[in-house]
Amino acid sequence: MALIVQKYGGTSVADLDHIKRVADRVKAIYDQGNQIAVVVSAMAGVTDQLVQWVREIETKQSNGEYDTVVSTGEQVTVGLLAIALQALGVPARSWLGWQVPFETNCFYGSARITNVKSEGIAGCLAKGEVPIVAGFQGISPEGRITTLGRGGSDTSAVALAAALNADRCDICTDVNGVFTADPRIVPGAQKLDKITYEEMLEMASQGAKVLQTRSVEMAMKHNVTLRVISSFLDSGGTFVLGEENIVEQEKISGVTYSCEEAKVTLVSVSDKPGTAAALFGPLAEAGINVDMIVQNIAEDGKSTDMTFTVPRSDLQKALSVIESNSIKLSFKRVDSDPNVAKISVIGVGMRSHAGVAGTMFSALAEKGINIQVISTSEIKISVLISEEYAELAVRSLHAAYGFDAE
Ligand code: ADP
Ligand code: ASP
Ligand code: MG
Q: Where are the domains of the chain?
């Protein structure tokens, strides 16, 4: 008998037929004598609709009311799945985030889980019940409902698995695992049987939305065995594990892209100590995450261009922060471009194999794609290019690293 946490995403609970199918799958695991806790998302498209309604009335930053609205999709699906299981004779009960509770901080809209009090869920499992838990939701120290950021149900599931010390956490979704690239963009993408936490963390943070980045962070921290599987098929899947469990290291594990950043260039900014601090300090204080940064060497020793990226949704805010610090910064002008894409290649094998960057740059050059910014980490190389070439770049790199299925 195992203790399993399974999470079903939006497309897996998209309508009543899908919910009944999920109930059948959960019942099969329960009938084999396992303890199972299920985390569910809202029906596909529901959270998008809720976010849009909030934005139509209020375009400013998230506050508690945003969370009150957008968390409601999950209340519907937990209730429906519990009813569907009861109809099959399985003792199931719905749990909202605050009932568990998933305690979080007060960052409404993208709150972080600080503690999961899992005694209630553990008691439910001990009685032979199946708890059906709302993903994405938490409760702040002020006693208000919080949400964990888009895709946050993955993190709810991993946090619950860690708190319950579960044997495994399954993320059940509309693809059959983690692929070498988004299978919707690259039809020849190949499923990986295993991937390390580190690589998955980079893939998720560089745009592979199959797992929320924080869920991978949490799985790595608590050593939760994570498996990404299809909600519709009975075999396949990808294990996300510690590096010690993977014997053969591929050079590259995947290619990702993200169109969620914007590029900002300060033209002719003074090249003197303190400039970077005067720029990036206020941006950080405003809660803006700066990602890629390049600074050219000043030819005249006096001024240089400074280019960096920020989340596209924060571009206007970033520009006004720069504007209000313009006297301290002294630059000629600011250029900005929201139409950029970040393409990344990821693999722990990069540490021991040479030539990964060369292959990337040649493949892009062959397609006439200009690289605007480059950044690297030990297991990742990212380039910023014009957004219109994003899909072409991903496909070309996928082929260049020899991933395309025969
Ligand atoms: P869910 O609603 O189940 O949470 P998501 O839409 O959040 O599902 O995540 C699954 C999607 O992630 C897939 O449909 C796929 O298009 C996308 N995806 C992006 N990159 C990858 C990748 N490397 N491997 C698998 N899926 C990926
Ligand atoms: N329903 C939420 C969203 O769409 C959470 C999730 O699906 O993981 O972002
Ligand atoms: Mg998701």
A: 3-174, 255-405
Atom of ligand 1 nearest to the CA of 208: 20
> Percentage of residues in the chain with pLDDT exceeding 70?
98
pTM (whole model) above 0.85: yes
**Domain topology for 255-405:** VC0802-like (3.30.2130)
Query: Does the Cβ of 11 fall within 6 Å of ligand 1?
Result: yes
Distance of alpha carbon 197 from alpha carbon 181, whole angstroms:
17
* CATH node for 3-174: 3.40.1160.10
CA of 10 to the centre of ligand 2 (A): 7
Query: Does residue 45 line the site of ligand 1, with CB under 6 A?
Result: no
Q: Report which residue type is found at 89.
A: G
- The confidence score (pLDDT) of residue 354 equals 83
Measure the CA–CA gap between 122 and 139, rounded to whole angstroms.
19
pLDDT for 62: 62
d(CA 289, ligand 1 centre) in Å:
24
Domains 3-174 and 255-405 share a fold: no
Longest dimension (CA), the chain: 78
91: helix, strand or coil: coil
How far is Cα 396 from Cα 389, in angstroms, rounded to an integer?
10
pLDDT computed for residue 121 by the predictor: 98
109 C-beta closer than 6 A to ligand 1: no
